[in-house]
Design a protein that fits this description.
Elements lengths: L3 E5 L3 H13 L3 E6 L2 H11 L3 E4 L8 H11 L5 E5 L4 H10 L3 E4 L4 H11 L3
Parallel strand pairs: 1-2, 1-3, 3-4, 4-5
């Protein structure tokens, strides 16, 4: 079971919200990144089971970060969690290698369902 999660979002409140939902449901948040560059560095260091990834962030957007994480680990599991729910953005994220796409504001049940799905539970 995927238990170790890296949360990536440029908003501290959103990182805290995701952390709370995940930890209440038995997941361990092993790191938090505020942008795509941090996410890649933390992925290399921590090797989490799943990454949650925002799209619109400073320094490096989520789509670019997904591609770079998959270069490091082709088996990485990334779930996009973004307010950018327009269809082209969803398609671009999935084409970049994301396993699922959650639209903010998210439902806690949907997050847990997505993590369980990508981890094969």
């Amino acid at each position: 079971m995927a238990k170790r999660v890296l949360v990536t979002d440029d908003t501290a409140f959103m990182r805290m919200s995701l952390r709370n939902v995940l930890e209440k449901n038995g997941f361990e948040v092993v790191g938090e990144a505020a942008n795509g560059e941090e996410s890649i560095d933390l992925y290399k260091e921590l090797r989490p089971d799943v990454v949650t990834m925002d799209i619109t962030m400073p320094k490096m957007d989520g789509i670019t970060a997904i591609k770079k994480i998959l270069e490091v680990d082709p088996n990485a599991k990334v779930i996009v969690c973004s307010a950018m729910g327009q269809k082209p953005m969803v398609i671009e994220a999935l084409n970049a290698g994301a396993k699922d796409f959650l639209v903010k504001p998210f439902q806690p049940e949907r997050i847990i369902e997505a993590l369980r799905k990508v981890s094969g539970q």
